[in-house]
Amino acid sequence: MSFELSTIALSVLEKSPFQVFCVDEAGRIQFINDCACRELSTSREELLLQSFFTVCPYLSSSSWPERWRHIHEGLCREFEVQQRLPDGRNRELKVSVQPLILGTEKMACFFVRDISEQKLFARQMQRSHAHFEALAQIGMMTDKSIIEICDFALEGIVKMTESDIGYIYFYSEDRQQFSLYSWSQEVMSQCSIVDPQTVYDLDKTGIWGEPVRQRRPMVVNDYQAPHPLKKGYPPGHAKLFRYLTIPVFNGREIVAVVGVANKATNYDEADVRQLQLFMEGVWRLIERRRMEEELYQARELAEAANRAKSEFLATMSHEIRTPMSGIIGMAELLRLTPINAEQTQYLDFMQASAENLLGLINDILDLARIEAGKISLSQSDFSLRGILEEICASQRHLLAAKKLRLEVDVDPSLPDVLVGDATRVRQILLNILGNAVKFTEAGRIFVQARVFEQRGQGVKVRVSITDTGIGMNAEVLSRIFSPFEQADSSTARYYGGSGLGLSISKRLMEMIGGSIEVESQEQQGSTFHLVFPLEKPGRRQESGSPPGKAAKTSGSALSLRILVVEDDEMVRNYLSSLLGHLGHQAVCCASGMVALAQWQKDPFDVVFMDIGMPKMDGFTVLSHLRRLEEQCGRRQPVIALTAHAMKGDREKCLQAGFDEYLSKPFKITDVEALLNRVPSR
What we know:
It is a single chain. The chain is an alpha+beta fold and about 675 residues long. About 45% of the residues lie in helices and about 20% in strands. The chain has 22 helices and 23 strands. The chain is elongated.
């Protein structure tokens, strides 16, 4: 050496755990410690004879003059480099450099330490952070579409494996076929294929199909080297250098293949495991979203089907009830004319048939309302005694025709006024009593009402209806509350009916919180037990009509001038004749345009308006009429006339500006009561 180091300094440098090189301005090694000799696997004597640039090729002789100047100006203190070892491995080094002046000679002292493990640990931590961050983000994507999830996953696998490119292929085990979802954004910028293939058969794939064939991950860290499974890739395809691909499982079924490529370092088991864990989470979310989307689509289809069914029922209701109005109405008007006994009998048969058909229509509509959840319950004061009297009276002509006895026993302690849904109570009782009369040929019908339980304001009333009819066996009893069920086909042919009454009654009882049970023996009759949960009113009704009974109408004291707007000729003629019978003057129009012209020409007390007219429906006519009212300063009472009978039809009419609502078919008493409620202009 051209200079001497102190014994202490030499000892410190010699024992340093880092490689130490002292280099002069010419790039000659003046000192090297044992650590450097061990790391380079070369003796000290050999190293001292070599140039520093040969021993440490990460520093070049051409750049040394500038680096030397920077070192002594304090501009170069630390830097990182990669060193390739004789066995082909790369290691990462951190180099610290200090300027030295020993005597008159300047030196540069290099301290070199291996930071490969630190770098590896940092990359693993970074990779783990990216992995968990991606999993956390995937967990928050529950409201995203499958496309958005896959897009995020595609870029996520590239990032967490430190790759340049990635792809996702969906796979069908049934068809043994791959379908390309997408390549990552980076590969799309490198790829120049004009019309890339998107569907591949398994037997046509090369190395990237192996994860499916072998059902395990595939790693190729030298993709450019010859490989027996490679089939090459098309011209313009992005170049691959290192490659990792895994199968994605849903249970035991392979559903996708995911691949990444061109990582700066080799792919290892950590990359494989991270990719597998991440894609497991991704696919669980995809399956969940797929199920949700399928459920959503199924719900949409079901709702569309329900809407179509409701529209169909409303249309059929309109188309059937309109001619039924004419049949029932004309029969009713005919009774008001002089007729003989034979004609009266014919009218009885006609009216009974029409009412049976109307009952069937109402049953079908009720069932549709219940299934669609469109039945609403109301609470009002009513008399259960009054309802029992009313429904028993409605069956008297059938009881008389069959010579059946009707016995009624009502508990004296039953409150005169109760609170509940009187309409549903009446409907249920009428269904059960009507069935008892229908299926009984001889004997009696016994109706009994008892207070079953009282707690505070709550009252449970048990109504039992017993008949001596055909009865039912155990098999029939098990299905009697199902829609369209009767004992057997012969029963349906002999007694008629739709088989809907009991099903509707059962569902209505469940809606109001009650219960219905039946006891029966074949050919010995049946007993239906109905428990109604009702309440006592807060205060007794002191005035008005008796609860549970309709107020009697006395007819209008004045003769009214009434405009009838109806496109159906039979209904138009019936309503005109009916109004004439009640002492009113009717002017009829078959269309909305004619009606508006007539209304502007002549004053009217009341307008009956059909809402289902073609070209211009009743709602449109009413809208025009209300605008005309603003010009002339008068308010015209208008009654909606409709064959629709679905829930909400009445409310819809009232909200549109109609004053009242009359559903077809209607009777003289219905019209009379309505005219008493609607004020004339």
